[in-house]
Design brief:
alpha/beta; six-stranded parallel sheet; three-stranded mixed sheet; globular
């Protein structure tokens, strides 16, 4: 397998993606600013490049795993960005959880060059390392078909959602629902403590009862509500902010989901 995959964003989530791509036999070019990241992926066999455009030049596919819309615009946009440097029709997959407006604007700014796909993810770094990350993917069918063999190096399943932007819309609903569920779990723990049981005991019991949920299990897996609040809430707040912003851009009323997110015990909104 001699395909070249460009990669930007080899952080906590991106680094195991790079490893899986290399293990699958792809030539992986990486742009990274941090020395420790550059050294780690170089040891694995990745090729280092000096600019985002260098990642895209001659690549058969480009993958970005960035934190925010601002980072995505910085890396993909401009005359020296990924989309301008990518060859005609080359898939450019964004794993960022951002807004539909951003990916739509970027996609239309560089006609005849790289083809942007929105590919937000659901899962953890451990899921990536095990090859079981869930990827939602929106964009032209022929471009999706071209990049699927690359994505399955670390993803299972890859769920196609329709045109560009639809994957982010699905992730919007998912994130809103998870945030609302997390608020309800936090409220349930408080009630359980008032009734004389500890949060740990309550969550262990719920794991075997009809009140079980992914959010409750996530809180339990992180060591309980205080640990979840310290470790997961900052990332959840970022997702909630993007979710509320995206809903506003699309003119969508999140209704009861927004109400629960804003008024629950956790500071998420």
């Amino acid at each position: 397998m001699s395909q070249i995959v460009g990669f930007i964003g080899a952080g906590r989530m991106g680094r195991p993606m790079v490893r899986r791509l290399l293990d699958a036999g792809y030539r992986v070019r990486v742009f990274a600013r941090r020395d420790e990241v550059r050294e780690r992926v170089r040891e694995w066999g990745a090729e280092l490049v000096a600019t985002p455009a260098g990642v895209a030049a001659g690549a058969d596919a480009v993958i970005t795993c960035l934190f925010s819309d601002d980072q995505l615009i910085e890396v993909l946009g401009g005359d020296d960005g990924v989309l301008a440097a990518a060859g005609p029709g080359v898939p450019v997959v964004s794993h960022s959880t951002g807004t539909v407006a951003t990916v739509t604007a970027l996609a239309t700014a560089y006609p005849g060059r790289g083809v942007l796909l929105d590919g937000p993810v659901s899962g953890t770094a451990d899921d990536i390392a095990a090859g079981r990350l869930t990827v939602l993917l929106g964009g032209p069918e022929e471009t999706i078909a071209a990049v699927l063999p690359v994505l399955v190096a670390y993803s299972d399943p890859v769920i196609t959602t329709g045109a560009l932007g639809t994957a982010l819309s699905v992730k919007l609903v998912n994130n809103a629902l998870f945030a609302a569920n997390a608020q309800l779990v936090a409220a349930a723990v408080r009630v359980g403590e008032q009734l004389g049981t500890s949060g740990e005991q309550l969550l262990a019991a719920l794991a075997r009862c009809s009140g079980e949920s992914y959010a409750a299990n996530a809180v339990r897996a992180t060591g309980g509500l205080p640990s979840f609040t310290a470790n997961a809430a900052p990332f959840l707040r970022k997702d909630v902010a993007a979710c509320l912003s995206a809903a506003g851009d699309l003119g969508v009323d999140l209704g009861e989901l927004a109400s629960v997110i804003r008024t629950g015990p956790l500071e998420l909104a």
